[in-house]
Amino acid sequence: MRDGQQSLFATRMSQTDIDRLLPLYVDAGFFAIEVWGGAVPDSVMRYLDESPWNRLRSVSEVMQGKSLLTALSRGRNLFGYVPYPDYVLEGFYKEAIANGLNVMRIFDALNDIDNVRFSIKKFNELGGIPDGAVCYTVDPKPEKKTGFFAKLFGKKEEKIFTDEYFVDKARQMEALGAKIITLKDMAGLVNPLRAASIISALKANLKVDVDFHTHCTPGYGLASSLMAILNGVDILDTNIWYFGGGSAAPAIELIYIFCQKLGVEVEANMEAVGRIRQQLVDIRRNLAAFDLQKDHFPRQFDPLTDTLPAEVDTLFDQAIQAAKALDEPRLLDLCHRIEEYFGFPKPNELVREAEVPGGMYSNMVAQLKQLQASDLLDDAMRLIPKVRRDAGLIPLVTPTSQIVGSQAVSLALDRKKGNPDYSNPSMQFISLVKGEYGHTPVAVDPEFRRKLTGAPEEVPYDTSKYKQPENPVLPEFGGVKLASNREEELLLELLPAVATGFLRKRRQEEFNATQAASAAAAAAKAAEEAAKAEPQEPITGEVVKAPMGGTIMEIRVTPGQTVKKGQVILVYEAMKMENEVEAERDAVIKRIFVKPGEVVGLEANLIEFAD
Q: Considering the entire predicted model, what is its pTM?
């Protein structure tokens, strides 16, 4: 209900779908169910016009403690895309626990322990179960180095992301109070032998339970999950059949078959899982607009009642033998044949080469499709390793995955136009390179940082400069405040632009319920239509154009206003990121071509300056 739909269907499951499934989950007996956090708070407001708090409450009220409820937190970034002050984190954690959340999986996109320190300690203090997640990533592929990286690595490239690296991060999280440690493989890049070595190392060095979270995108997920089981993992993240495989986690049904053959108990009621599986077919069909595999459903299968053909059953036995023999090529081949038989997507070689998470990939595909620029996908994917390397070899998980993905698209556009690389760096990428998201695993080249930020030194984010969003009074809705309670105030803190639109709708609904049809609204609509009908005067001044396609979220200037160089004049959403457009010189605003909520394409006219 969180990562499966986020990875496969761009987080578009409605509350109606959730309510349909919940009674079936009561009897499923899962150790935990992930229902919140990650992209859910943003997406349910942005795309479904639903309340994140109502979603969490609805799940808690039905489940009544039968399974632990979990959420995903990006540490200092919480469920958003920028670092937040401690009081914002504490507010969300406190309200989440009050609304029934039990476990918070806490990670940092850079594996910077400083960015998770407060969250782990505070969630513990509030009575929750902190799950410290170490983000898996890989060392860059060997290539000819020049400049800064040649000096850094010398002739032989140093390995950064060793088993000891991950164990050290896990130990630090355990020392902070984490009650579970998760190896979070958001890109599905943990190959089977690496899963064996890291899981066994974590088990040998930790006292708390170890969880393994992976995805099947590049073809490792099923085989690596089997290897994790053989090496003593305590908890394994899975999805149910029609929400499993591909860019999601392995299907629990396939894991169940392996465990039956190994004599390993799966603490889940597979009959109840089967009832959920039956409902997921129609729910997935309803999400076809966001389903990259809508024409390739896995074949129907129930591991409790269906008999496998002998040759397929043998594949499971042979895969176990290959895993025990540490024969990785044969293990992968057998697991791929198993997945092929059941109709799961084939390994995505491009994703494996570019080293990206499935959710990031599906979001990039959806965004480029919306921009009618799908021809740039291959170029953008190939540029991701370069962007990642330039930014300090960062792991790719939200928000860094979205920042790097967006910048790779921008880089592809630069090259298509014949412009120099990084001609249009996003504000978020500049902040990342500057150091505002935390310490990167490898230092950023000072000259690259100087090029993008104007200074070679790392500058950390200062939470004392955080500006609390206003909670304005809305006279048009009877003088009420935009956010009417603490929960809504927190949403405004988390995602001010998205929450503002969402909360305005709530206040308008409440106002309309107590007021007659508004003559003022009708007059405003008529005036708007009249304005649209007026002929546009020719453009004579300099025009600010959209650097990427997206949705206009906020306009901060008015015609006739004088603006200064560097002043933010407009905010738009692209690649699920909020991007600020700044004035490149002192100027006077002549005309505004767009309005909040409008979807614009690449290089669309935004604002005209006076001559």
A: 0.79
